[in-house]
Amino acid sequence: MFKKIGPGVLVAAAFIGPGTVTVCTLAGVRFGYALLWAMLLSIIATMVLQEMSARLGIVTQKGLADVIKQELKIKWIRNLVIGIILGAIVIGNASYEAGNIGGATLGMNAIFGITNQAYYPLIIGIAAFLLLISGSYKLLEKVLVALVGIMSISFLITALITKPDLLAISRGLFIPSTPKDSLFTVIALVGTTVVPYNLFLHASLVHEKWKDVKDLTTARWDTIIAVSLGGIVSMAVMITAAQIPNTEINTALDLAKGLEPLYGSSAKYFLGIGLFAAGITSAVTAPLAAAFVVNSCFGWKAGLKDMKFKIVWMSILILGVVFLSFNIKPIEIIKFAQVANGILLPFVAVFLVWIVNRTSVMGNYRNTLIQNLLGVLIVILALGLGIRSILKVFGLF
Q1: CA nearest 348: which of 44, 40, 63, 21?
Q2: pLDDT at 335 over 60
Q3: Residue 17 DSSP code
Q4: Predicted pLDDT of residue 115
Q5: How many other C-beta atoms can be found within 10 angstroms of the C-beta atom of residue 125?
Q6: Under DSSP, is residue 210 helix (H, G, I), strand (E, B) or coil?
């Protein structure tokens, strides 16, 4: 069973970062179990898109950006598309890397009870560097599988400690509702789960693991199981947060502190371990995704051990550590990243659905009618999210 585990776990590791934990915390604190359905919807959308991305990677043995370049025949359109992808993924991941490292730092604060330790980001940065510098996909996979396992167990135990109401959870999952002022939170839950760079990461990673279309079924189950696990972890955070009466909770660290008087120190420690694992897994996968995208866009055909590839992820990682260690808040860059990602999600979803329907690319492994219907619905959802995120950045929504 463990030999069949593939890059789906790395995708789950990528989307369950500190941003996801924080959004899920706020959703649980403010709206209880009422928005669990939004997370369920997000997980289904993620499964559909990630399965398409993995299938594309196995059938073509190429990255998503490689195939987009191949299929766009008009030079100026091809260059524009590649430029948007590069800007959104590379600058976006560099901006958010500080948040990933910061999330792992919050986890260490919760575990050790010491705040404002300047060397925490450096320790986490070095740990991520050592994992990536090995250039071994198998090592990365094993370590991230272990970290995702630790994260999953930690958040699930934390949720169970709070003794949640199972009937209320079922209602929240299967009966959609939008309490007053919850619309932004619903959009944030979808936006933090359906991540554009994961589509590029997945298409590139699958052909590190699998080389034959016979492996498509294994890859599909790998995606379904890993993304489901990620969804359960996100829901566990929401369920935990729903038990805290303190509405002043704004971050996952506040949640850890809020748990201690009600459920004892064990809940705080389990949450801290989970947050640390969430931060460090995203701190590894964000630079990795950026390196794969640059590799595809420039047609380097570089492997994990090639210096060009290493220089890209090193740059992203160093920027994250520097921003956090010196308390630099690159607000304008992050705003650009939000706009770029807002454009990128529907943009990439459209290209992905288009490409996996092309006989010249996919042969007999094109989308089915059901996959296309789901894909179109997700594109519409992604378009709404993109417009909202752009308007919000400019203060218009």
Answers
A1: 63
A2: no
A3: S
A4: 59
A5: 22
A6: coil
